[in-house]
Q: What sequence folds into this?
């Protein structure tokens, strides 16, 4: 099984998704023929300007907002930083409190930590075992000193989907703004800004088939926040920097494709459920995140007595791309704050494995992932000093 | 973070994995909270030579690779020589480790020393070469999740 | 002449340069085959990570710095904002003063204005007729309260090249950091960070053949500034946001090409001089900017009694892309602050025309531009109520 | 900023450009500092009809196009009708103007009124329909340079 390196199975779409060929095709003519600066008066500039506004209109159409409410940025991180710092500094002197959750992405958490150093008060609301935010705690915390409530729409690690409309209602009830990091949600689940009720929403292209390096921030008409990037006054004076037209066109195209394929997400959810079933059949394992309020592609399972990085490296050798919330993952040495927030013991947080599926995954992929993971878990447990003893792994459950 | 080929080799094909049932010294360092636990078993000859060494490790790729390399480096050596093993020597033998993983090599050094401490203890000699508790909290890190 | 729309002459490279086909070719395989997230542990991620560091090494090699000193950003504007806000807020409480010039790009000026609102003191140093910074004034202003001296290396409107090494020396003499906005310089003139002496330098890809939406900030080893984008800790913890690998690869390639073509800039400078000569033969005209300390592609001339936007629109109709510092240009209604800073009367600032040439321009282009501009200026003067009377325009001077 | 086709047409092919040497009224508004100056010449018949109108304009595309359109709109009209010309009518006839250019249409309206003021003045009637000084400094704008 180990040398099955020919066809790789990519199951790390939450980290980044391959750029869709349709998106590259949409961008190519922009690189070659529509490279003008949209601010320029001449033909090259005006043509670029028209393409820019057409893309904005397309994207806004998919998201259910007005084109003037959508601001293109360089990534989800920039959108998150802008929304939070922008709202905080705009309210400064009047309101000094930010409320967020314990399971935000670092783009939100680190921004909030920076604000704390700068004198803001930040409250981090807890979540339950499934990762759902404690709305009662939120209700208690939100007050007339609260400038902003920022809650992630769908978590990148455990896939839990929050009741954002309720969060927005609670925020608005106290006169606070509501922002949601929808980086993992947009493209995976329907997001309709005309109904959601938030004041701001961030998204990032590379989570749904556009390249890395393009994002957007929705800012509801009338909502005033401070600029993050000052300069030539692009994006109606609110986000300066010459516009990245190829990626903006790519983002709009990717949003359209995601909408077209939204129906296919049912199939992806079925793959997810089958994968969860197969992995939980391995003894000493548990599902992280919510059983139902969950992104269609997200699988996050912890295995006792093994550590995540080792599993990811072995799976990689076997042709499968996955990720882990283990301390040892990548640059981090703390285990995932999200897994700890849902009450997972540190040991189990180290043994977590995340698969994030897309429309490109097949049933065969899933069966292979299950079989490979069993093999890897067994291999690593055999050399684990804390494994209580060899316990036969039961046969793979047959498909329903 | 990129592992050297040597690290990947020792991770994928670790040398001396397992237990020595009648070991002369057994040491265990790290803890599950930190994400790394290493257990070392040594078999020492009458002449004080480490005739056999085995390990079991719960931990990341670097933890397994450094354990494996550490066993290779002390096998056949005298206890005295083994005590001179430094984490730097492990890192060097592995052709480098990413900065955030250096602590794994420290742990491997400590695991060897813990096994030797146990060996001396069994012989009635009280010595402690390894810090009793390896603290994972001292590690400095950059976070990065996607 | 008016319907010569077949072949357009692009002479607005300071606004943006066409993306080089070689750059698109370098990026294409990245879109298709190297779309991984460089932070990921698996093969896709590691491959992307290697390409990222290779590109960084290439770019650093061209710029004469270490790879670890180069941070990729989303544009020149971001780099400028980061450098200035980063240095200002890092020094806050200790140092409160920022010194810059009167002819900075808005990415610097607006950032400084935002800092003023936030309690910083900002001094704007004047320039002489040619646009060269007043070093004496700088020496007088810089003191132990000065956190940062920020001076543009080459101006985007008039092309004047500043003595940045001297500026850096003056800044360092008082213990201040020195930042230079080299967005217009990099790619057009040799920039060698190993000799320049600055602490920070910004650049933007789209000014030398990479796409819009990629930039970099050089931060000298040991220099500490505050982060602008907080999050997952990319770029060694200093600039978060998943890396835009295709554009980073494109930026590195464009830098290499610019270095290869640096010799060709002599030819571009000759075209520039010929264009200046041809335009100044039109009566009631003057050159804006420095006669010698000037970017090889920059031509900026003012024509009395006519307004810039009208000229740009007419030239556009005749197939020539140019720009103006007129109030009426694009979104702006103030005439260029740069033209006013060099002492140009407002009326003449409104009548300015900028051509910015690249290696792609030819001698024929220049002759056509000269002839077309004469025609346009004459046409517009004829309908100008302030034109003192019809004065025959002399024949085009013959080439030297 | 995108001009409508109509604006571009009136900019590229302005109607009624020039001077009327024996005009019955001449008005000039704006100033070079603001970047727009419009001069209007009218020839008025005995019955008070604007028989001919010409303009000269220093200014941007919109300034020229609004001048041109304003002359078209008043030509052949009575003085009273011409006085009813609003900048909105000029904008509408041009099929819209970018927001930052609306002031040009105001200037065109004022230029017509200044010419009519002059016409009345020459006839010994003191009236002023246009604000004496058009201030460019009141304009609100976003800056954008590259
Ligand atoms: C001198 C200068 N600085 C900064 C910028 C901003 O760069 P970007 O458009 O990449 O944000 C520009 C160009 O727009 C420039 O010419
Ligand atoms: C929930 C969430 N927010 C923000 C981000 C940051 O987006 P980007 O990588 O585009 O900066 C990510 C992904 O990295 C994410 O998953």
A:
């Amino acid at each position: 099984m180990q040398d099955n390196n020919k066809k790789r199975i990519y199951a790390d779409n939450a980290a980044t998704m391959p750029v869709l060929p349709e998106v590259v095709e949409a961008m190519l003519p922009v690189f070659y023929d529509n490279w003008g600066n949209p601010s320029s008066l001449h033909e090259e500039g005006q043509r670029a300007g028209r393409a820019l506004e057409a893309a904005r209109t397309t994207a806004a159409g998919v998201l259910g907002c007005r084109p003037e409410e959508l601001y293109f940025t360089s990534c989800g991180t920039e959108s998150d930083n802008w929304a939070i710092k922008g709202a905080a500094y705009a309210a400064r002197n009047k309101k000094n409190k930010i409320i967020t959750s314990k399971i935000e992405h670092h783009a939100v958490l680190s921004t909030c930590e920076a604000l704390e150093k700068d004198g803001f008060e930040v409250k981090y609301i807890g979540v339950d075992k499934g990762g759902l935010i404690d709305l009662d705690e939120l209700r208690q915390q939100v007050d007339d000193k609260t400038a902003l409530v920022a809650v992630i729409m769908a978590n990148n690690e455990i896939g839990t989907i929050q009741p954002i409309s309720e969060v927005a209602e609670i925020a608005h009830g106290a006169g606070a703004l509501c922002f949601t990091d929808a980086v993992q949600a947009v493209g995976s689940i329907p997001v309709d800004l005309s109904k959601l009720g938030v004041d701001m929403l961030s998204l990032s292209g590379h989570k749904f088939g556009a390249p890395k390096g393009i994002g957007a921030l929705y800012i509801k008409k009338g909502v005033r926040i401070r600029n993050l990037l000052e300069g030539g006054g692009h994006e109606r004076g609110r986000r300066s920097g010459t516009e990245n037209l190829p990626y903006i066109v790519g983002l709009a195209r990717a949003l359209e494709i995601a909408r077209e394929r939204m129906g296919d997400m049912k199939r992806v959810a079925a793959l997810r459920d089958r994968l969860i079933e197969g992995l939980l059949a391995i003894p000493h394992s548990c599902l992280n995140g919510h059983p139902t309020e969950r992104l269609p592609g997200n699988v996050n399972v912890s295995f006792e007595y093994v550590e995540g990085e080792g599993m990811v490296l072995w799976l990689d050798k076997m042709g499968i791309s996955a990720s882990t919330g283990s301390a040892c993952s990548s640059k981090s040495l703390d285990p995932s704050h999200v897994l700890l927030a849902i009450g997972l013991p540190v040991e189990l947080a180290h043994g977590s494995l995340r698969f994030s599926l897309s429309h490109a995954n097949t049933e065969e992929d899933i069966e292979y992932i299950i079989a490979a993971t069993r093999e890897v878990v067994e291999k690593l447990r055999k050399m684990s000093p804390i494994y209580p003893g060899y316990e036969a792994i039961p046969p793979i459950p047959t498909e329903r | 973070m990129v592992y050297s080929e040597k690290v990947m080799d020792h991770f994928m094909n670790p040398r001396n994995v397992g237990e020595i049932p009648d070991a002369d010294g057994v040491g265990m360092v790290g803890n599950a909270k930190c994400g790394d636990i290493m257990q070392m078993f040594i078999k020492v000859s009458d002449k004080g030579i480490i005739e056999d060494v085995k390990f079991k490790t719960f931990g990341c790729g670097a933890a397994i690779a450094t354990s494996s390399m550490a066993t290779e480096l002390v096998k056949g050596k005298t206890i005295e020589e083994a005590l001179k093993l430094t984490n730097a020597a492990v890192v060097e033998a592995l052709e480098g480790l990413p900065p955030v993983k250096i602590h794994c090599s420290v742990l491997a050094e400590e695991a060897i020393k813990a096994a030797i401490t146990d060996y001396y203890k069994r012989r009635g000699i009280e010595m402690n070469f390894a810090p009793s508790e390896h603290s994972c909290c001292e590690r400095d890190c950059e976070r990065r999740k996607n």
Q: What stands out?
A: The first helix of chain D runs from residue 5 to 12. The radius of gyration of chain D is 15 Å.
